[in-house]
Every structure is written in structure tokens, then in C-alpha cells.
Amino acid sequence: MMKPLRKPPGALPRQAFPEGAPISPRQMWAANRFWMETQNLVTKRYGGKRKQHWEVLLVMMKTFELGLKVIGQYERGVRNAERLEVRELDLYFDALPAAFDGYTLLHITDPHFDGLPGLDDRIVAAVSGRTFDLCVLTGDYRTELHGPIAATMDSLARVVAGVQVRDGFLGTLGNHDDCHMVAPMEEMGIRMLINEHVQLARGDAILQIIGTDDVHYYFTDQSLHALEHARNAFSIALVHSPELYDAAAACGVALYLCGHTHAGQVCLPGGRPLVRHVRTGGAFIRGHWRHDGMQGITGMGAGASGIPVRFNTSGEILVLTLRAGPAPE
User: Fold this and answer.
1) What is the pLDDT, as a whole number, of residue 21?
2) Structural domain count of the chain
């Protein structure tokens, strides 16, 4: 029988620290994240900060939306975005502990619940009658970047209540999410990994899950330090975007799960994206990929960002089955 998620030595306690206790890494993260959010700062991996001018982006999106309506393609794009597929993959690893052979992960990323009404119900319906070992969530639960979160949290809670898993839910934040989401998500049963790691045990076998904060808008070196724990066990990294692919591979991560790109969301025929929306890792904006011995999956996202339309892509959730040993030819 699977043992529950356990914290490795040095992991953060879940309860608040008593008065007078040292400030925890989680508390330091929350204070820094809150400051970056309120200042509209984007921090870059290789140094530097800049102000994000959301009004320019909003004007561009509204102009594109209006253009689609003028040429009669907006409703078609919405229908495309509402289509949700379940994609299943077997992933093979020589180093996977035999005890975890056949372990199933349900990967949901980028639902942007406030952008597509009814998406929570479509996700639950898509996996109705199935049970998975673990559900992992890699960020962007809403479309808005600021403001109330209650409606988004309600939609996420309906998904948590409707999805059947044996070992629970693990989550990370995306660039559309704010630090206030962590507490309600943990209250509904999602163990949030904010530059932290947890371990699953089957007997003496360990499967380690590492989660980072968003690295597209809110990069800090804490995410790199979190990945260094991969040297201790077979590890899966949950990162919102593919932009830490090289660092994760260098640290020995076996599987890198991310989203963020929506596979371009609006693409030319053949799937060529108009916008990649990454600073690094542009070769890994969709599908199953490899880098320096590490495997990666960039999900196309369950929802749509900015404008609720898709062209030449589709929304998806992923069912990933871990297999021990080499892949069949």
C-alpha cells in the first residue's frame, strides 16, 4: 500500500510558526512574491527586473479579438478552445524504481477557469469513472493577473472534488496566479510546492516531486536550489513553463512537467505558433521532448489565455503512466 506524502528532512512544516520563531523560507517567499506582484515587476533568470505594462498587452489582445469578430472567426475560435482532449502517454525510465512501474499521473495545466465558463465540469467529465495515483497541477488557474480569486478557487475546488486520486494533489503557481492562492488551495487538499519537494514511498522505493514557483514572471534562485534535491532520488519536476529545462537536466531531474505556452494557442496551419511566450526553451513549447537525458512534457493547457480562442491547437489534460525500463522500439 502506498504511504502518504512525506516530507524529507528539512522540508517545511505546514503549520504557521509561533510568535518569535525564525522566518521560514515559505514566509520569505510570500513577502517577496507579494512585493513583485504589487509592483508589477517581472524578474528574469539571468538578471534584471522590469515593469510589466499590462495596459499595452490588453490593447493588443482587444485589437486581435475585434479583428477575429470582424472576419467572422471569433465564434469558431471559442468552439476550438472549448474542445478538451485527454492525451495518454507511457513514459519509460531505466532509473524508475520498480515499485512505481505503472504509476499514473493526471497532469492539468493552464485551465484559466475564469476565461472558459464550464471548464471545471468538462475536466471532471473527461476523467469520470477513472482513478489515478496522483494529480499534478502546474499553474495558471485564472486569466486575470490581479483581483478577486474566489470564483477561480471555487472552480478548482470542483475539480479537486470530482477527480479520483489515491495519493492526492500537488500544485505549483503560474505567472497568472498570486501568492494569496496558496492558502485556499492547501485548504481544499492541494499540497503546494513553492520551491519545495516531497517524497512518495513504496517500501524502500522513493519517488520525489519537486515544485518551483513560476519562473516566467517571478524567477528567483530559490527555484534552482529546489531542483538540486533531484540528486537524492528519482525526481519529477513541476515547473510552470519549460524555461528551466537546462537547469533541471543538469540537476538530474528525470521528468519535467510544465505548461504555460498553450502550444502557441493561436497557430498557423501545421501548428506553427504566432507567439511562443518563452525567453528560453523555445524548442520545447509543446508535447514530449528530451534534453540531456531528461524527458519533458509541455502540456497544451486545458484552457485559453487572454482571449478564449484557439486555432490549430486544442485544450488537453494528460494521463502519464510511468514505466520502468527501456522504451519498446
Assistant:
1) 62
2) 1
Give the whole-angstrom CA distance, residue 234 versus residue 199.
10
List pLDDT tens digits, range 245-273: 999 999 999 999 999 999 999 988 988 88
**The three cell numbers locating residue 111:** 485551465
**Number of other residues whose CB lies within 10 A of the CB of residue 78:** 16
Asked if residues 99 and 202 have their Cβ atoms less than 8 Å apart, the reply is: yes
Q: Which helix (H) or strand (E) holds 67?
A: helix 54-70
Residue 58's pLDDT is 77
CA distance 174 to 40: 15
Across the strands, what pairs with 237?
Answer: 210, 256
Residue whose C-alpha cell is 520525489: 208
**Rounded CA gap, 285 and 163, in Å?**
27
Coil, helix or strand at residue 84: strand
Backbone angles phi, psi at 267, to 5 degrees: -125, 160
Are residues 198 and 11 in contact, defined by beta-carbon separation less than 8 angstroms? Answer: yes
Question: How high is the mean pLDDT of the chain?
Answer: 90
User: How far is residue 164's CA from residue 106's CA, in Å, rounded to a whole number?
Assistant: 10
CA distance 120 to 177: 17
Say if 97 falls within a structural domain.
yes
In 3D space, the residue among 122, 121, 62 whose CA is nearest the CA of residue 316 turns out to be: 122
CATH number of the structural domain spanning residue 135: 3.60.21.10
Range of the domain at 272: 28-39+49-324
Continuous segment of H or E residues that includes residue 61:
helix 54-70
Buried/exposed code over 230-239 (b: 16+ C-beta within 10 A; e: otherwise) = beebbbbbbb
